[in-house]
Amino acid sequence: MHPVLFNIGSICIYSYGFMIAVAFSVGTYLSRRAAKEAKIDPDFIVNLAFLLLFSGLIGARLLYVTLNIRDYMQDPLEILMLPHGGLSIYGGIFFAAVTGIIYARKKGYPVYKIGDLLIPYVALGQAIGRIGCFLN
What is the pTM of this model? Predict the structure, then answer.
């Protein structure tokens, strides 16, 4: 429908990437606010959010490339070209979950308490991200 929201000079702002950034920002803000109420260090939540974002992107790309490895064998540098598309949500969820569990345990927080705090905002972020998919 509208894969490109707008251009700033030669830079394209894509709807999917923009909506993912909105989802991340809203989810991080709201979970940070909820963390204060739950007596959890808000900085821990911000650090965790960035870890989850990057590990989720890496996992999503790795699974997509693994499932489509024949397409990437002829041009391996294409693996790094995220603007050309190719993410798998299942890989993102798996890598982000493993990263979140490891980080929460390392910092001494109960995994279930952190999960209970974050899951509503993960769902909200997923809904916002789906709008980006629709626009794409």
Answer: 0.86
